[in-house]
Structure formats: structure tokens, C-alpha cells
Amino acid sequence: MRLSFLIAGVLALGGGVVAWNSMKSGGHSMSQPDTSQIAAGDPIASVQLPDVLSSEATMGEQFFNVKCSACHGINAAGKNGVAPPLIHKTYEPNHHGDEAFYRAALIGVQAHHWRFGNMPPVQGVTRADIKPIITYIREVQRVNGIK
What we know:
- The protein has helices at residues 2-24, 55-67, 69-72, 98-107, 127-143.
- It starts with a helix and ends with a helix.
- With 147 residues, the protein is mainly α.
């Protein structure tokens, strides 16, 4: 009997912690920005760039421009009607960790936050290529208040 109360208490406390954490950080913006006034193909997000990128992020920016920017736009600002901005709080590290980026690029991902459709795997990209891309995205996110 005492063990049952202990287990119930731990489960209730765990649920409360999860709810509290999602509320206290402002949560994730799962609502899409209004893009009705943005022309098709134009950037969705306004992105500030760091004054200086690390050497790994500089390499990642180059890889991003070759493999990702056609869909996700210059500086990962997104392209209206094409793909979402990665410089958006939906992709903050505590919601979409680095492994989510690896998986999306390597095996694709089903649409679940945006209405752009499923993302196919990126042809010709390896885990080693993706690592500096993630470093680039995370450095740009931090300058834009996404931590």
C-alpha cells in the first residue's frame, strides 16, 4: 500500500515538473507565423548574424549554403511556401536537439510543426557534413535569442 502511494506521488511529481518546464520557458512556438503578407519564396524570419562565426560554424555555413539553403533559405530564414526557418524558437535545442537535425537530413522527417510537407532526406550528405551545419545553425540561433 505504501509503495503504491510512493509510486503515484513520483508519477504526479514528474507530470508536474514536465508541465512546469513547458510553461516557465514560454513553451515552444508551435503556432506558425502569419506568412500571408510574405511573397512566395521570400524569407520568413528576420535573421541577425553573429559578428564572428567559429571555424566549424564557418564551414557549416558553407555546407548549409550548398545543401540546405535552396529550401531553408539564406541564413536559415526559411522560404515562404517552401520550407520553414530554422532560426525559429520551434527549433530551440531543448525541443529539437541536434539529433533531430541529423535524422531530418539523413532520413527525412514527416511534417509536424509546419505546413510545408514532409522533408525528404538530403542527398549526398553525411553525419560528418551535418555536424558543422548544426554548429552554424546553433550559433546563429543564439544571436537571435534562441537558446
